[in-house]
Design brief:
Blueprint: E1 2-8, H1 28-44, E2 50-53, H2 57-70, E3 77-78, H3 87-95, E4 103-108, H4 112-120, H5 128-135, E5 142-147, E6 160-166, H6 168-171
Parallel strand pairs: 1-4, 2-3, 2-4
Antiparallel strand pairs: 1-5, 5-6
Helix pairs in contact: 1-2, 3-4
Length: about 180
């Protein structure tokens, strides 16, 4: 069995005058949400053997705030293939992960992360977490999965169970939607 935790980058700023999507930074709400999720990981005692992350600016900043709050010493492997990747590409990245890694944290973007959850967790699994992701996979949310595989190279559709889905607004209501 392998463990996979998926972290969507925190809320980025559309107001920043950067020229490329890749360079968009986090906004203040995103920085706060990333820290809240890091604190959640710390309280839950989660740890990761390997971190695979998109090198987009908003992912880099998400991990900075997440790491500072979690107290973990993370050394991400930055992989450009994760940037705006499809589920199929994300699975290929995971298939190439170090075999000794038991728990991977993958940090990236939607819709790829959301689609990866749908591909890994069987459609018949109508658990609360999968249903929540079907509604929306908000920024800075964590999806925790257990995969019924021995090696990362064996990852395939329908090989996972969905353990937990945590959104920033579950931990701090002020991090919920901006509408009422």
């Amino acid at each position: 069995m392998k463990k996979l935790t998926l972290l969507r980058h925190a809320k980025s700023s559309w107001d920043d005058p950067v020229t490329r999507d890749f360079d968009r930074p986090l906004n203040d709400k995103g920085k706060r949400a990333a820290a809240v999720m890091g604190t959640f990981v710390k309280r839950g005692g989660l740890s990761f053997d390997l971190v695979l992350a998109s090198p987009a600016q908003r992912v880099i900043e998400t991990l900075e705030h997440f790491t500072a709050a979690s107290g973990l010493s993370l050394d991400p492997q930055w992989d450009r293939k994760i940037y705006l990747a499809s589920s199929a590409t994300l699975m290929d990245v995971l298939r190439g992960a170090a075999p000794e890694a038991e728990h991977i944290l993958m940090v990236g973007h939607n819709p790829g992360l959301e689609d990866l959850v749908f591909d890994l967790v069987p459609h018949g699994n109508l658990s609360g977490p999968r249903s929540a992701v079907e509604v929306k996979y908000p920024t800075a949310s964590l999806a925790e999965l257990t995969l019924d595989i021995e090696q990362w190279a064996d990852i395939k559709d329908d090989c996972a169970t969905f353990d937990r889905f945590t959104r920033p607004r579950d931990l701090d209501q002020e991090l919920g939607p901006d509408y009422i």
